[in-house]
Design brief:
380 residues; Rossmann fold; 2 domains; 7-stranded parallel beta sheet; 4-stranded parallel beta sheet
Amino acid sequence: MNADQPPLEFETVAKLDAHLRENRPLTGCVFQGLDLRLHTAALTAGRLTGSAFLGCLLEPGAIAHALADKAFVVPKPEGIPFDPFRGSLYSVEDDLYAGYVIGQPGGYAATRDARIYAHFCATGRSNPPSILESLYRRLHDHGMSDALEESIAGHRIVAIMGGHRLARDAEEYRAVALLGRALARASFVVVTGGGPGAMEAAHLGAWHAGRRDEDLDTALAILGHAPLYTPIEPWLDTGLEVRRRFDGGRPALSIGVPTWHYGHEPTNVFPTAIAKYFANSEREDGLLTIATHGVIYAPGSAGTIQEVFQDAAQNHYRTCGFASPMIFLGAKYWQHTKPVYPLLQHLAAGEPYRDLLCITDSVNEVVERIKAFKPAIANP
């Protein structure tokens, strides 16, 4: 392999099998979280110099061959509920909420999402005393970022931020759902912080992009039976009921980016893929960075306001090479209840991104502003 080329990465056995069918070498490759016990013959047939096996299951003969060839082998650790070497984003029903049974009291505690959060709390939360725990979390989050970058390649990304306490039966919730649906229908990928409230509404809308308009109203009526995420089981039950009832067709790609740092806020069930992190700082900065086609702010409190000024700093210093729209949905809220917008206008005075600020009560205006934006640096 050319030293200037990145190593070939294998996150699925199918990709490896296709590589082997072409009789290509396995030197300088990275194998991530794979069960390779049925590939011993292929692995031991040639050189593995410069390769890395991260959290893979290997037969003893393959391990001995790899180590003799100076490959890097890191076994998957035992006794932790997450995979530090995971090479793909999470899904709802196959991963985070696998095995959850609608109507079963206390069912959330048995889910992978809840078990990882319990482990996070039991091992020091954001300050684990164990260096191995800290290392495993960082490896996990690095894998999330890598998988996220692969998932969004070639897409136009718009982030929707907003409060986790927004009730499902609130008019503002419906407005955000309509916004998420409209953006998805316009072929944008909606990303959010992945939690309840406004974040859930955005993904709910994207989930219904390919369905009839009245189906979203039906979904909102079902969700209204459990307007808040506490208690969690009714909130999850109604969410999964909607997801399964309207699972026909192919929902538009939307990605939730939550964190176990705020694990008391459960991940909502409507993203088609989930990049969940341990480190909130990495997750939050990355979420804003990938939103190359703009960030929309529904009403929110301290967390949302923090994101406003993180985004403003990225635009102010053009850390991504260009500035992108910052659109505030809810004129009264952002001008008077939480008067962030006037301050932001002062901050942006004389800066190019001043013209990318917008405040409105109109979902249609938000969508038109996003559609009209063309990044100064071409994106795929």
